[in-house]
Amino acid sequence: MIPSLWIIFTSLISTLVTALSPHPKLILISFDGFRYDLLNATMCPNIFKWAVRSSWFANGSRSQYVTYTAPNHMSIVTGLHEEDHGIVSNYFWDTDTGKFFDYFNSTKRQGVVNESLDISWYLGEPVWLTNEKSDSTRRSATFYWPNGEAPFPSPPHRPSIHRQWKDFRNLTEWMTDVDAIIDLFTNEEDPVNFVAWYVAEPDHTLHLNGFYNGELRKKIHQLDQLFGYFVAKLHDSGLEDVVNVILTADHGHAEIEGAENVMCVRDYITSEGYDLGDHMIYPHNESIALEIYRNLTDAVKKHGYKVNIFLKENIPKHLFYSNSSRIGRIVIEPEVGWAASLSCKTNKLLETYSSGNVKFNSSTHGMDPDRKEMRAFLVVGGPSIIPGKREWITFFVLIIPSICVVVLFMIYACKHTILTENQGWAWSQKGYRPLLMNTVDIERSGSSNISAPLTRADINKEESILVRNQHIRYGDYGVLGPILEKYLKTTDSILQVGCGNSQLAAEMYDNGFRTIHSIDNNSSVIEEQRLRNKQRPELVFLEDDATSMSSGDESFSVVIDKGTLDALLPPDATVQQLESVRNMFAEVDRVLKIGGRYQIITLAQQHIVKFWIEYFSKTKLDSEASISIESSLQQGPRYRFFIVDDAKAKAIRSYAVFIVPLGREGEWIFSTEKGRRTLLEQAKKDELGPFASRFDPRENGGLIDFLSCGSVDVRVTQASGESAINGKWTVEDVVVDEQEYRRLLAVLGLGGGILASFLLRHFNKAVIDAIELDPDVVKVATQWFALPSRDSRMNVQVKDALDYLEEAPQKGDREKLDMLFVDLAGAVHESGLSCPPAVFLTDPVLRNMKNSLGANGVVALNLVTRDADVAERARRSISAHFPALFHIHSEEDVNEVLLACSSVPPSFDPLKFSKSMRKDLPWLNDLAPLVGRITRVTSFRD
Q1: What is the spatial distance between Cα 843 and Cα 498, in angstroms, rounded to a whole number?
Q2: Listed GO molecular functions (predicted)?
Q3: Domain check: are 479 and 529 in the same one?
């Protein structure tokens, strides 16, 4: 029966495929305002999963100036700057013709939408027309793309199918759009081979709510659901293997930090003599222009607004935003964290928000496109795209139409690309070749050639050793920031060697690092950096040589090398080049303060790593190092290596690998540095062998011992879920030395309920309070561990154990406790204390424990730590509140039970007491040997 079903399914797909367009196929999708760093596994798992198996430009794409919706969507499909394609903002005037453009109807002017669809506005050629012009059988469609239905000068003027722009729609409508797009590709009579599809979110939500009030997360979730539906429809329709997809946005977003960060422009200009555009002013004559310019610049200085006011001719040339009659005489550009409004009044704005009753939540765009907050996300996937490729370069929005054209026409370009080498991906075999296309790095503005090792030929030989390499990309602060912030403090004095034209120093400055000196031996580079950073006066740029620095000894606490080592050390380095690198290392050592840090940002090619390790590995590790090995197919580390040296050893003669069984990685001895050192003192598979052998420090190598304890995976998951308090949980059967036990699941209190059930079963007159913070844990204990929670003597309370201990001392003497069990599991911290949480060993809490007991009451506290010092401090803390303290160690684990007594005779002997215990109760008889092992804590170490 199964073969028959398979044959039917195959024939259906074959019928579908024959109905497709014979030309290469592409869907271009824009989620308006989707900033590059919103793409992560937590907020949008469907998009993330697709991005991981596609070519993902993790640094996003750089928008065009100005970073608004209409102009950037036109740049995306034409490859032109805004001054060239003519759509210079969302609404604007043309001073040559006197006409007004407002495609989105932002100004609500009568008939303005129809006027904005006049052919005279549109100067470029969008990719949908390029597609149709090349062949009469090619078909394009635009779904709500801004200006997607507009007429362009070159025939056929409009795409075959076009749906007019719509703004804020919902998930149901978006899914209907997906169905319609799929139908267009599979239409038997006239299928399309290109679609441009626009969705107006999350831009709308960000403007109304900003990043932090929770609404953005909901909207991103909807977009993720939409994209998951889209991917499923591609798969179900058979298009997954024949359609390429570009997923991007027009710009990023930046949070406005408060109502006081909004400049109300009309407070500072006269009421007539000018026209207004989006972020622009069109004065009627030159004298009015200069007056408005003076008023606005004076207001910026007086009130401290972080807003740039430009005369048109003074706009920086690299922004390509001055050569058009449609650009206003005065252009207003807020900085990140600020906004400029042409409609508000300051007094009214502050009156609304200053009381705090109304919360100001808003985000906006329109800032400098070189700011990372303005970057849009970009992922390219499909049959002609190399899967699982993550690029750290920053694409220009202008490059996207080039990708479209090359995908649609299979133009052959160069070797090092995001496109597959598979020649047979397309259904139509007509000599098309897969896209092979240069990539662009915003910082170094050159083509990428990263798959081959760097050679000296890649570097300008006429420049000295600290050159600006235009062939490499290392990422900007958006990529490097988390690493830098982990090891650097904002108060550090920092030296950057070989700065080139990198913007790293400026980006670090904008993120709070103030004392940064940058050197390069190219005078023109230094001059360029000084000019670019005039508004960052504390940044210092000096012409200097990294191999012979002019700085004094111990001048800096941090030295950063971003690409300089790679430039100095080619694979075939000469003796002189090797000596130059050694000189640089020596100079770095000289200028660093004691305890300073040397951070090298490198492509880590084999010859670089080998030289670096040989130079810096002359001493043993005084602290452990760790390395994570990740899979491209799943999130998070697949293996984590911890390398621990015995600093006391005179020579390393043994080398072994210890494999931690799955399910036991949370134990102190495996999860903390001190624990792993204990393991070293006390003391996988073939796929790990080659990797582990790279770290073998022995001169003669040899066989490597792989050590472990028990089976590699000792877990059998029985159930799992997620609690609002404790997060994800699992119920697992765990086997150690072939003996089965169940591990506690809770962070506080009840856990699996084993102890509470035991007490209820064997003390039939006892009333038991079981305290648990998390209601989900109570459900787990009841369902999976048979907790008798409905028994009248079992009082299960869902509350914080600390609150319970606060209330217990207030009870009357008849309600005081005879026995208090403290069996609270906490997270394993570097201190080594995993049970109880440290707060339960503080004086106020221990005092409450003491006061909650009756005259002869006892506290039994489960102490879990492998750190002798931590255990000693715990005993000392408890003994300060109780007159007698006893303990017993577990034979099988690291548990130590501490018994703190309210009163006990000095002559009490646990061993003698164990011999006098009742013999008629089997369960009690089994416990007698354990009672005999209890000993009194009589002294503490100094």
Answers
A1: 55
A2: hydrolase activity; methyltransferase activity
A3: yes
Judgement on whether residues 415 and 356 belong to the same structural domain of the protein: no
Domain containing 855: what range?
716-936
Is residue 451 one of the residues assigned to a domain?
Answer: no
Model confidence at 439: pLDDT above 70: no
pLDDT digits (tens, 9 = 90+) for 46-85: 999 999 989 888 888 999 999 999 999 999 998 899 999 9
Helix ranges, 30-139 (H): 45-52, 69-78, 82-85, 112-116, 127-134
Number of domains in the chain: 5
Half-sphere exposure of 443 (CA within 13 A, CB side): 29
User: How do residues 874-894 score in pLDDT, each as one tens digit?
Assistant: 999 999 999 889 988 876 566
| CATH code at position 464 | 3.40.50.150
DSSP 358-426: S----EE--S-TTSGGGPBPEEEESTTB-TTEEE-S-EEGGGHHHHHHHHHHT----SSSSB---TT-S
Q: Is the CB of residue 862 less than 8 Å from the CB of residue 835? A: yes
Burial bucket for residue 718 (CB in 10 Å: 0-12, 13-18, 19+): exposed
Taking only the tens place, the pLDDT of each residue in 125-176 is 999 999 998 888 999 999 999 999 999 998 899 999 999 988 777 899 999 9
- Does residue 675 lie in a domain region? yes
* Helix or strand holding residue 352 (H, E): helix 346-353
448 domain residue, yes or no: no
CA distance 404 to 398: 11
Q: Are residues 668 and 804 in the same domain?
A: no
Residue 157: left (phi > 0), alpha (psi -120 to 50), or beta? left
Q: Is residue 552 part of a domain?
A: yes
- List phi, psi (to 5°) of 559: -120, 130
Residues 188 and 286 in one domain: no
The answer to whether residues 238 and 338 belong to one domain is no
Q: Which residues pair with 100 in a beta bridge?
A: 93
- Given 327, 361, 395, which residue is the final one in a domain? 361
Q: Which residue has the higher pLDDT, 843 or 834?
A: 843
